[in-house]
From TrEMBL:
Domain Exonuclease span(s) in chain numbering: 5-171
Name this protein carries in UniProt: DNA polymerase III subunit epsilon
Pfam family, one: BRCT
Naturally occurring in which organism (per UniProt): Zhihengliuella salsuginis
Top-level division of the source organism's lineage: Bacteria
Gene (name only): dnaQ
């Protein structure tokens, strides 16, 4: 693994705004070995600096703990220096990359141009597990106990997961783990994906809710519907993640729908966009206007909830 070079990253946020990064970590992997681990608090920018109880409950970070910490502009400079020209790896790239990008936009600095690779996608592809949350994958691979939702710990474990999977796959370069996607053939049909298992299976054949799922999870006991493509996984895999967390998969939006997961690279969904979106989105908008409660989730949030 002498050519296996990357920097594992993880961020925690103060509130629901992805730009509210309050902790960041970078774990440098060079020539297949961890050579440096760096973790520091970040003072979120004005306007997104509130620490909500829900987020503090997850990671334990409070506003008092980031007083005097560097802002994102300085933190991004340090992160870029630690990563150099090497790619970033995160266990939930859709979330971490989006958070870094939004924090950069709010701070007026350029977002990193480095490639981002997702260790969660890699684990889903290579490991047959009931759930692919970070603690589940770590335990399966024999990685010791760690403090989940501490950025430094999560980044270190993500790096160790990639190194162990690279060893098993005899991969010596990140391109062996995350090969470039081939361009679609000229004769490929845009509708061909609709012949996949997630589209042809009946509602009764979809992954069923796990009886051992955490009852406090937002998906538990609710009907969950997917609309649009996810960048990080196929639809059947997403349905399995929903079921593993106690959700009931639905093929269409109905009066029972409680959660709508919106893909196609969207990072937010407004009421106007919902009203002009896909048929599922338009139907969800109509039900919501009539008083039905439907939780709207984009891919970064989906991965954060299922990792």
């Amino acid at each position: 693994m002498h050519d296996l070079n990357f920097t594992a990253v993880d961020v925690e946020t103060a509130n629901s705004s992805y730009a509210s990064i309050c902790q960041v970590a970078a774990v440098q992997v060079r020539a297949g070995r961890i050579i440096g681990q760096h973790t520091w608090y970040v003072r979120p920018e004005a306007g997104v600096g509130e620490f909500t109880p829900r987020n503090t409950q997850i990671h334990g970070i409070t506003g008092d703990m980031v007083v005097g910490a560097p802002g994102w502009r300085e933190s991004m400079g340090r992160l870029a220096e630690l990563a150099g020209e090497h790619p970033y790896v995160a266990f939930n790239t859709a979330f971490d990359k989006s958070a870094i990008s939004q924090a950069c936009g709010l701070s007026g600095v350029a977002a990193p141009a480095n490639d981002f690779h997702c260790a969660l996608v890699l684990a889903r592809r290579l490991l047959q597990l009931p759930r692919h949350r970070l603690p589940d994958v770590a335990q399966h691979l024999g990685i010791g106990a760690f403090q989940h939702h501490d950025a430094g710990e999560d980044a270190r474990v993500a790096a160790e997961i990639v190194l162990e999977l690279a060893r098993r796959e005899r991969a010596s370069h990140v391109s062996h783990l995350w090969p470039a996607r081939p361009a679609p053939s000229a004769g490929a049909s845009a509708a061909s994906k609709y012949y996949g298992r997630a589209y042809t299976a009946s509602s009764k054949e979809l992954p069923a809710p796990s009886p051992t799922a955490d009852p406090s999870h937002p998906f538990h006991g609710r009907h969950v519907v997917l609309t649009g493509d996810l960048e990080s996984m196929g639809r059947w895999e997403a349905m399995e993640a929903i079921a593993a967390n106690g959700g009931t998969n639905g093929k269409g939006v109905t009066k029972k729908t409680g959660v709508l997961v919106v893909g196609d690279g969207r990072r937010s969904v407004t009421a106007a966009e919902l009203a002009a979106g896909s048929s599922k989105e338009r139907k969800a908008h109509a039900y919501m206007a009539a008083g039905q409660e439907i939780l709207l989730i984009t891919e970064p949030d989906f991965l954060r909830l299922t990792r």
